[in-house]
Design goal:
Elements lengths: L2 H14 L1 H24 L5 H8 L3 H14 L2 E3 L6 E3 L2 H5 L1 H23 L2 E8 L2 E8 L14 E3 L4 H7 L4 H10 L13 H14 L2 E4 L6 E10 L2 E11 L5 H12 L4 E2 L4
Parallel strand pairs: 7-9
Antiparallel strand pairs: 1-2, 3-4, 3-8, 4-5, 6-7, 7-8
Helix pairs in contact: 2-3, 2-4
Length: about 270
């Protein structure tokens, strides 16, 4: 029997148990219905509103949402218990999204790399973390290095703050509520109210900064990337503290503020 024939036979056997599996398939349909409702609203929702929108019994919906939360696809706002979707859903389509982002961002990253010869990072938000999609390392003996695919807490990085600051208010509120502030260095912020003020300042100034808050000996400045008017990613410049100075900080800030990275949304 060939591999294809074996696979077809296995599929036929599975079909014979269709009635037995119907309940499982039904749960999947209900789970996706709940996901679609929360995604369409775009902000944290209470259980009762999701139940009303989906037509699902609260008991069934509660079990589904708790399972999605355990799997990391949904989360709850600490203060209200409202449900929202995490960045893990975006991870399912990461490859296509990363290709789009790289195509748009790499020319800008290369220009910054040539101008300043410091490490340039491209990141996206995933839950309470920022994920490094691409990194152009400084061509110097002493430089900050991070492998592509690394994840850092968003609140301690300029890369993450640049995105979080430009989320819609309900999304930002939910993100902060779900954030567990842990010290990365002696300079890492420890208070959620302070985090909110920092993100307000980033939104107003257009540039995020972390001064050795994620890694000792490294200063980072970051700006958001918008797709179709919505924040989707960010670019940051990482500089060792022994090369960082006030004039360099001013030059980087002015350069980053002038980028205006707002691209049409991909089809």
């Amino acid at each position: 029997m060939s591999l294809i024939e074996a696979e077809n036979a296995e599929a036929a056997g599975a079909d014979a148990g269709e009635g037995r599996d119907a309940a499982t398939i039904g749960v999947l349909v209900k789970a996706f219905r709940a996901l679609e409702v929360v995604a369409e609203i775009g902000e944290p929702m209470p259980l009762r509103d999701i139940a009303k929108a989906t037509g699902l019994p609260k008991g069934t919906l509660f079990r589904i949402l708790q399972t999605l939360t355990t799997l990391g696809y949904a989360a709850q706002v600490e203060e209200t218990g409202f449900y929202y979707l995490t960045g893990r859903l975006s991870w399912l389509g990461r490859n296509a999204r990363e290709d789009d982002l790289k195509m748009l961002a790499l020319p800008v990253m290369k220009a910054l790399h040539e101008e300043f010869n410091e490490t340039i990072n491209l990141g996206v938000l995933e839950g309470t973390y920022v994920y490094y999609v691409a990194v152009l390392e400084a061509e110097r003996p002493l430089s900050w290095r991070v492998p592509t695919g690394t994840r850092d807490t968003y609140y301690s990085t300029a890369l993450g703050r640049a995105i979080a600051a430009h989320l819609e208010p309900p999304q930002r509120e939910a993100l902060i509520g779900h954030t567990d502030l842990r010290s990365r260095t002696a300079h890492t912020i420890k208070d959620k109210a302070e985090l909110g003020r920092i993100l307000d300042a980033v939104q107003e100034k257009g540039v995020a900064v972390d001064l050795e808050e994620n890694d000792d000996g490294v200063v980072c400045l970051g700006v958001p990337i918008f797709l179709g008017g919505r924040v989707a990613a960010s670019i940051s410049v990482s500089v060792p503290t022994n090369r960082y100075s006030a004039p360099l900080g001013e030059a980087l800030t002015a350069r980053l503020q002038g980028l205006a990275l707002d691209f049409p949304a991909p089809d």
